[in-house]
Write a structure and sequence with these properties.
Carbamate kinase; transferase; single chain; four-stranded mixed sheet; globular; eight-stranded mixed sheet; alpha/beta; 11 helices; 295 residues; Asp/Glu/Uridylate_kinase; ArgB; 18 strands
Length: 295
Amino acid sequence: MIEATPDNTIARVKAETLIESLDWLRQFHDKVIVVKFGGNAMVDQELTKAFAQDVAYLRYVGIKPVVVHGGGPQITARLAELGIQSEFRGGMRVTDEQSIPVIRDVLRNQIGKELAELIEQAGASAQVLSGEDANLFKAIRVQAETEKGPVDIGLVGEVRSVNPRAVLGALEKSVVPVISSIAPTVDGDVLNVNADLAAAALAVALGAEKLMVLTDVQGLYSDWPNKKSLISSITADELRELLPKLESGMIPKMQACLQAVEGGVPKAHIIDGRTPHSILLEVFTKSGVGTQVTG
């Protein structure tokens, strides 16, 4: 009889964890999972590294991860360095012709490049893309909704059509696409688009198995800030009814989840990006983390 020791107890737990993941590996093998990267995971170096490791792991076990990212904090910092003041209306950044090239550069050449490098350091190939590449996204300008009604916010839009050719090409080569949320209009104007909704539109176009949206809270609360009102699972109908009552910062994330499941994605998830390896916890454990939205 082998005497139990801390070492073999830990080994047994690791083995049980691997066995638990087997059903999920079967379910998601060769399937596309779209992840919207943001929140604290984007500005904390260790969390970003853990996220990149999760993405590389998914790729190596036969899943096809696609990453879509924004970059609010980094954009604000770069604009401040250039003496450009950031203005927000209705929770959305006012974007003019002076700031759009800065936003484009930060998203693609700073955030996208650094994230792709971390994914490659973790062992998987990655490719930096934006909504401008190969007509990936086409967007329309939108206004911000405020208590006083709609207001103009400049070169800001939402994705209205997706041509996933470039993303599919990367996936066929076992490469992880890392996509920034910039998109042209049909007239050629470049817009700063909401990354949550862009990720949802892409998930629908790719026929993804899941959409996962990282945020800075544990999940969706029915009565924020009451921590006991955390919702582990909600249907699209229930979410549609709850949506007008949510805090403004959570609305686009939940709209993205709703848009995804209404477009045919089986499940969408809000995940706490403050938890290291939250992607793996969601995909490979029975309990998962955060809030799940189903059709």
